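Continuing the series of single-chain predictions for the mutant panel. This is the parent chain; the variants come on the following pages.
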Amino acid sequence: MKIYFAAPLFAQSDLRYNAYLAEKIRALDPALDLYVPQENAAINDKQAYADSKMIAQADTNEVLASELMIALLDGLVIDPGVASEIGVAYAKNIPVIALYTDSRQQGSDNKQKITALQTPAENQFHYLNLYTVGLVKLNGTVTTNENELLAALSRFVESRNVHDL
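Parent structure:
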């Protein structure tokens, strides 16, 4: 099964986490063909040159050749490239399993946090772009930790059914 791994890839922390998570995914099943854009030196070696069309064509072709997308949503905002890739996947009915681990989502039932929403500049929660999240949820799921992500991936690999996510 071909899987596209959509994730930010510009900070060392991004690159290391992506490599770590890709290794966990690949360990699930050696038959998984995981495309991780940062491993494509032809377009993502930042010492070399690739123009916008080269990057767009290379990654879009990989999205379109995939049966599933894994997308990381963490960050101040969803990475713009990840959001674009999610849009392509949605348009082509490619299921998406997203990972959103932001710790600010914890305590959603805490009454003080909820009350604080009424006070200007006291939002205790993180906001994600609802359009992009909606595209994921219309044809996939959002998980909140690595174990949930890997479990959803295993279910999908076994059934090939988006409803099993």
